[in-house]
TrEMBL record:
Protein's name according to its UniProt entry: Activator of Hsp90 ATPase 1 family protein
InterPro entries xref list: ASHA1/2-like_C, START-like_dom_sf
Natural source organism: Phaeobacter porticola
Transmembrane segments: none
Lineage start: Bacteria, Pseudomonadati, Pseudomonadota, Alphaproteobacteria, Rhodobacterales
Family according to the record: Belongs to the AHA1 family.
Segments forming domain Activator of Hsp90 ATPase homologue 1/2-like C-terminal: 12-140
The organism's place on the tree of life at top rank: Bacteria
């Protein structure tokens, strides 16, 4: 299994950053890589339980991902499982994501730990996706 860690420093309070990673209306503004929309979702990272999103790119390709929120510790961290669905709807390999919010000299730091990825290729694809997603967060948060 392969693990991935990304960090982003943002000029907001840790409490404000936690709102942006947990409240559905804010989360949907940056969830998914650039060019992706999220028209279908059951995404509430404020409580433990199942979640699901369908992301659609500009070509109309659909990407279904789901999991279970495993912990919510405001204003510090949220953990959830992550699994892509194939074209038949079958859920594939499950990995684990933790969003951690830490105080930082410019405001707050978001740490994304994506663990138990199925090899280097999957980790590289997720890194590209998370980096694009973090660019959206950086340009959206206020």
């Amino acid at each position: 299994m392969t693990n991935l860690r990304l960090e982003r420093d943002l000029p907001v309070t840790p409490e404000r950053l936690f709102e942006w990673i947990s409240q559905t209306d804010k989360l949907l503004q940056w969830w998914g890589p650039e060019g992706i929309t999220v028209p279908e979702y059951t995404l509430d990272l404020r409580k433990e339980g199942p979640w699901s999103t369908v992301m659609i790119n500009a070509d109309g390709d659909r990407y279904h991902v789901s999991g279970v929120v495993t912990h919510v510790r405001p204003p510090h961290s949220i953990g959830f499982t992550w699994g892509w669905h194939d074209d038949t709807g079958a859920r594939g390999h499950e990995s684990h994501v933790t969003f951690t919010v830490e105080p930082h000299e410019i405001g707050a730091r978001l740490v994304i730990d994506h663990r138990d990825l199925d090899g280097a290729d999957q980790a590289a694809r997720h890194q590209k996706g998370w980096e694009s997603t973090l660019r959206k967060l950086t340009s959206t948060i206020h």
